[in-house]
Every structure is written in structure tokens, then in C-alpha cells.
Amino acid sequence: MKRISIITLLLFVTLVSGKAQIINKTHLSPRQTGYTIEARLNTESKTVNGDMKAFWVNLSTDTVSDIRLHMYMNAFKNRLSTLNQESPGYLSFKNSEKGSIEIKTFTDKLGNDLSRVMKYISPDDGNPNDQTVLKVILPRPAKPGDTVFINIGFETRLPAVIRRTGYSGDFYFVAQWFPKFGVYESKGMRYASEGAWNCHQFHANSEFYSNHSLYKVRITVPKNYVVGSGGLEMSEKESEKDPGEKTIDYRAEDIVDFAWTAWPGYSVFTDKWKNVNIRLLLPYERREQAERQFKAVKNALEYFDINVGSYPWPYLTIVDPPSIGDGAGGMEYTTLFTSSSLYMVPAFLHLPELVTIHEFGHAYFMGIMASNEFEEPWLDEGVNSFWEERIMDHYYGENSSLIDNPFLKIADKSLGRLNYVHSEGRQNVSNKEYSWNYPHGTYSMMSYNKTSTWLHTLMGIIGEETTNEIFREYYKRWAFKHPSGQDFVNVVNDVVARTKGSKFGPDMNWFFEQTLYGTGLCDYKVANIYNNKIESDGIGNKETQPKEKASASEEYRSVAELERAGEVMLPVDVLIHFNNGEEVTESWNGKSRFKDFEYRGARKIEWVKIDPEFKIRMDINYINNSMTVHPDQVPLRRLANKLITFMQFFISFISL
Amino acid sequence: MKLLSSLKSGFIRSARAWRGIMIMWLSSLMLVSLVAIPLKHALKTDLGNSMITEKLAHGINIEVFADLGSSFRNLGSYFISGFMLIILIGFIINVFLTGGLFSNLRKSSLSFSIQEYLQASAKYFLPFLIVSVFISIIILFLFILICLIPLSIAVQAAASVEGALLKTAIVSGSVYLLLVAILLQVADYSRAWLVSSARPQSLKALGFGFKYTFRTFPSSYSLVLIILLVQFLFGWLVLHIIPGIKPTGEIGIIMLFVLSQSLFVIKIYLKTWRFGSMTNMMELNPLESSRSESR
């Protein structure tokens, strides 16, 4: 009996640990966790029935007495879940539209029933009605190096599409659908002062945090369904149990999550970039957008490859959900992501491209560098938004990357900046807070927009190439690990010191304290320009408006008065233009509240620009960044001219 | 034949009425300037001596306007309220001047007197206003019935049918435009009849308008469609010309002004062409009752 158990155990270990390499030649990550799941989609009951064999390896030096599992789907189980409490009204009233995950059987490798020693906990808010984190006391604590094996039979009831998971009619997007290990953070990892599980509840404003894992997933669906997943398809065959069904085997290595979709209406397109096979699933009616989607993702692949690091998987699946499932659009699962589009989106509107590039970018910031989105969402969403804006600008035009129409051109990064600098909650909270603690609807602005804006500002200060070098180094050091915000700051400090010496001080902490962790505003302004004629007694007569070119014999005392109106202190360039055509670029460390640049000579200041190249994108007001003694009225006249014409045509049009 | 001769006659009549067209243009320019020029000055004040206007060199820049902060909201609210007001005033002025224009289109001579023009405008103002308001209300009602209601339903269905909203918009919009073309005939016939009638009565005119429309439907509907098509193509051309012009100097601004206003004069001319053609069509198809009413 014992011998049989040992043989079974060996087979089991081989099966779930997947030592054989299939997708990549070597392991990309430590593979602390792994999952083998057999799942069957029941389209009648809108459920997924699964049998899961999973393992977790204790890579710490601690003896760990329990394991923690995310049970995300229970966030949609009742109206008392933390997710719904944080966002009242989020969840549907209808029972048929609620979601849940129920454990049917739960054993360890020896067949011990673990369902008796499991209980739901709420480590974040103590909510007794939240069932999104499951704690299981191990029959025998896991010693350093031990592997914990678990077998779970579960049934996931899919909700009507919510938070990018669920069903809508015959469309299914199956995400956050299986019991999933939290991350055990050993001492010294990220901010851990001692070893502990990092397994947060599912919040209204938060995403996820997981180990890089090995996935072997077998999915059974009705035959007419087209399936896409984050795994590489290994085989497809008719179901042994039901000839009306088919079973597909997938394998995924070193990804942090496994999601899949099934819908009979998908059209499938394929393309290739270098060694990456790209598979696109979209509604037939949007087939003309396939090229746009492929072009966008290839642009992103190329840009990341050059400036950050290589995309390490040989496959990628893009899903553009149909209208009925648009709630599943715009989400990332590393080797599968969902874009978001509409029927006949005009070519000038680069919205599908933007979503595709953004969601693909998560393969790096979250997928490869698996940061903790619960605690530091900026490290994923914000950093990724910064790259999305750069890619959009690079490939779709600096001033027209989002909308490129003769009437209106809007750059992606402009919207990003405006969402931060004109947000009413821009000073409410710093990025030190956990994602669910961002108050008054500031989660999106703080996680996405503020971060991308200060990253553009950082790039403006240290330069584009140094910025790229930072991210190459970040990739090199932290790929397939779990970096923290401080780890990113450390990389910046090291790379800036290496490439720029002490130009910006011993480190760049002064920048991050003000921008990432600070709540102050940045606003530099030109307060005034003076050109005073110097009389023979040396006293200048005040003259603010030079009416004619100064003659060589006239001496002027010219002053540009600058002010720092905000709290944030950043170094800025100041460009000063004189009436004889000369230009001087001054550097101001931006620390003092006032700064005067004074010149004497036979020339007068015509105009002054602080940050002439708009590098400091955190500046909340560009209008006061410059001043001239000869304002250019042409753009305003042109605007008025066109406005008049528009109004004339409109009134004539509506009059019979 | 009637169609071609009406188009030709309408074209010639409109050319003869060029002074009326110029009056319409001038009144329109003055009206919209009442909103546009103060708006421009307010924007100029808000931007001060900033060089941010350089960012407007390539057209509208949302960062510039957003950085205006609360001033932008004030400007926006001023523009919206001002625009609504001039739409209302513009509609009334158009009704007023159209009376003079229709009267002028009936004349065969080249003589033009502002006094006569304005007298005719005043004389037909009330009946023209009633006709215009009546037809406008029907057009609005049709818009709600044919466009808004189906689109509202399509919004609900958009989640289940791919492209439902766009497909509905295209079908509804096409049907709506075809029906509006019929109502334009009614309006034009009614007004043409009013200026030819000894006793201009608006409700009676509307009755004649509908009667003429359906009596001469094939030819007059084709005529209106041809002219609307020309107007549409012209509008399309304007939309492609004006946004692309971005002068950087004062002379360029003047040239843009001349060009845009010239295009607007052509726009009025094309509309007058429709009035003239419909007037001619009515004259070629006299009704018994209208003959007895005619001067």
C-alpha cells in the first residue's frame, strides 16, 4: 500500500511540476507554484467545473504552517463582499448574474481532507462576509524547501460580465476562476520584515499579485465554441464523454495568471513577429480591424524589445471581445490580453491601438516584473501607461497619437497629463497608500496618470536614453521576480549615478519624495519681463514694452522674473530671447521661490520660456511658463475666423 | 425638361438676386461676430502675454484650453449660451430676409432696391415665420421619431448586436434626410406661393405647399435632391478645405477670412438656387386655385 502511494506520489510530482520544458528552453522563473486543471464549461448553468492539482514550494527559510488561496470569484457572491461594500451598487441584484467559487473537495497529497481546516479570512478589513481569501492550516507545516501539493474539486459560477470576467449570452470570459495561491514573501523580499503570506482580498480598486507559475489546463467546451487562452495549445480533440464537446490542452510557463475565453462568434486571425506567433480573436463584423490590431501589437513588441527587453514567450493571444462582452475588454493576463474596440471605429481614432498597446505592455509590468498591484498599483499601471504613451507617440504621431483628424488632434500623453494636473483629487493622497485606500475616485488618476506624468518628467530631466537604460536594467534585475517600488527607485539611482555621475546629486530620492511619494504641485511661472534703459547716472528708467530695436549706443538692464508657484522643486531650463536675435539658455535648480535673470547690454529681452521643450510635464499650468512682449495674435484670430465660419454655416444649415 | 429648365432658371434668378444674398451674408457675419469677437478677446485676456499660443499653430490643442482652468469653463459656458442665442436670433433673421429674397426671385429685372427688399421682408415676415416654425417642428418631430427613438432602442440592443448603433444611425439618418427633402419642398412651395399671393395667409400657403409638393412630386423632389446633393458636396469640400488652412501671418489670416466668407456666400447662393428653382417649378405648374389668388 505504502509502495503504491510512493509511486503515485512520484507520478503526481512529475505531472504537476512539469519539469519538462516545452515552451522555452529553460525556466524563466523559480516556478514556486504550478497548476494542472481540468475544466469543463457548462453553458446551461454558466459554470466551470474544475479539478485542480497544484503545488507551492516553500522557497523561504521559514517553516510555514498554512497556505493562502485567492478565491476572487466570491467577490461577486453577495452584496456584503468587500468589493461590493467598497463600491455599492456594483453587483447585480439578480442571482443568475452573481458569481462564486465553491470548493467541492480539498485534499493534500496524502488524501487528507483539508476542507475541514480551511476558513475564509479578511486580512485587509476584517469583513466577516468577504470570502475572497482562504486560509488552510497544513496538517504538517512546510519546512524550507518543502513542496505542498493540493487537490481541489471546485465549481465556479460565472457572473454576468463584471470586472473582466463572466458571461454574456453565449460569450464567456473566464478569469480569476480557480483557487490561486497568494505570494509568500520571505524576509527581505519587497518590504517584508519577516516571512508572511501576501494575499489580499479582492477590492473594488485593486488588481492582482501572483507568482510566476506553470499551467497545464485542459478545457472542455461545446464543439462550436472558439477558444482562446493564455496557454500554448498542445492538442485539440473530441471529448471522450460527449461527442458534442471538444477538449483542448493548453500549457503555459512562467506566467502569473491563466484566463481563457470561449464564444462561437469569434473569427480567428494569425500573424507573426519574429518568433512570436500572434493569434487574434475578434467578432466577424470587426474583421477589417485585424490589421490595425496586429500592427499595434507588433509596434509594441518592437518598441519594448529595443528599449526594455525581449518578449520571452513564442506566442501571444489577443482577444477583442464582442459588444455583448465588452465588459471583458481592456485586461491583461500576460500571454493573453483583451483589447477594446467597436464596430467600424474610424481610422483617425486610435482607441483600439491604445488599448492593445497598453494591455500588451502589462506583459512586462506585471507579467515579467510581477509587482504587487494591490499595494503598489502605480508600478504596473502607471509605468505601463508611460510606455503606452511613448509607443503611441512614436508610431502614431506626437501630437495626434490618440485622435488624428483635421479638426482635432489629441496626443495620448496629453490626456494622461490633463487627467492628473486638472484632477481635483491630485493632492488627496500619495502613492504610499494601498490601492483600495485611494479616496474619492483617485485610484485611476494616482495609479495611471500621475505616475506616467512624473515618469515623463523624470525622462525630461535625465534624458530619454538614460530612461531607457533604467528600464533595461530594471528588466535585467527584476524579470520573473517581484520588484517593489523601492527596487525601482534603486535601479533609477544606480543607473543615473552610472550614466550622469553626480549631476543630480548623490541619488534621485529628492525626485521620488516629491513626485511619487509627495502630494505637492509643480508650477513654474514667468512673472514679468523688464527692460530698463540705463541712463548716464546708472539709474534705469522702467520700460516694459520695447517699441523699437535698441540702438547699439543704448544700454539696458533686462530682467526676467521667474517664480516657483508650486511646492515641487525641479531643475528647469529657461530660454531667454533678445531683440537682437540672441538666445540664452539658463539652468535654474528650481528650488527658490523667486529667481531673476538679469542682463546688461545693448539688447532687450523679447521673450522668456521656462521649460521650453515641455519636459516638466508635471507642471500644472503651461500657460504661465512663458511670456513675451509681443504676443502672437495670429492663432487666436485664426481660431475666431474658423469659429465664425462654423457658426455661419451651422445657422444657415438649420434655417430652412 | 421642367426639371432642367427650373434648375437653370433658379440659377439665373439667384444670380440676379445677388444683392439679397450679400445682405444675408452681411447680417450673418455681424450676428455671429457678436459672440465670436468677445470670445476671442476673453481668450486673449486669459492667455495674456503667454507664448503658449504657439501650441495652437497646428489647430486646437486640448492642453492649452485645459490649462486655462476655470477660465476655460467660463469661456465654454459663454460660448454655449451665446451660440444658443444667436441660433435663435439667426433663425428669425433668416426668416425675415428670406421673405425679401423670395420676393426678389420672382422679379425678372435686374433692378434692386434695399427699401423694396426690406419692405418685402417685413411684409412676409409673419407668414414666413409661421411656415418656417411649422415645418421646423415637423422636421424636429421626425428627427425624434425616425432618429432618436430607434437610436435609443439601438443603444439598448448595442450590447447584443454588433454595430447595431451605427447601422441604425445610417438607416435612420438616410430615411430622415429623404423625408426632410420633401418638407423642404413644402416649405419652398409655401413661401413661393406666399410672395405670389395677393393675400398671404400662412396656413393656406402650407396647404398649397403640400398640394404642390405631391402634384409635382417626381420632378420637384428630383430637383430638391439634386440641389441638396450639390450642397452636400459643397459642404464636404468646405469641411476639407477650411480645417487644413493654418496661416501663420496676418496676410494669411485675411486670406482665410476672404476664402471662408466667399465659401459662405456660395453656400447662401446654393440655397437661393433652390428657392429660385422651386419658384420656377411652381410657376410652371400653376394650380387653378392659386391662379385665382395670384396677383
Q: What do these coordinates show?
A:
The complex is a heterodimer of chains A (656) and B (295). Chain A is of the alpha+beta class and 656 residues long. Chain A has 4 domains: 1-263, Sandwich (Immunoglobulin-like); 265-363, Neutral Protease Domain 2 (Neutral Protease, domain 2), CATH 1.10.390; 379-514, Neutral Protease Domain 2 (Neutral Protease, domain 2, Orthogonal Bundle); 524-630, Immunoglobulin-like (Sandwich), CATH 2.60.40. Helix content of chain A is 23%, strand content 30%. Chain A has 11 helices and 32 strands. In chain A, strands 4-7-2-1-13-16-15 form a 7-stranded mixed beta sheet, covered by helices on one side. In chain A, β15 and β16 form a beta hairpin. In chain A, α3 packs across α4 (351-361), α6 (412-421) crosses α7 and α7 (443-462) packs across α8. With 295 residues, chain B is an all-alpha fold. Chain B has one domain (2-293). Chain B has helices at residues 2-16, 18-47, 62-67, 70-106, 114-157, 164-196, 202-215, 217-241, 250-284, 288-293. In chain B, α7 crosses α8 (217-241). At the A-B interface, β24, α6, β32 and α11 of A face α2, α3, α4, α5 and α6 of B.
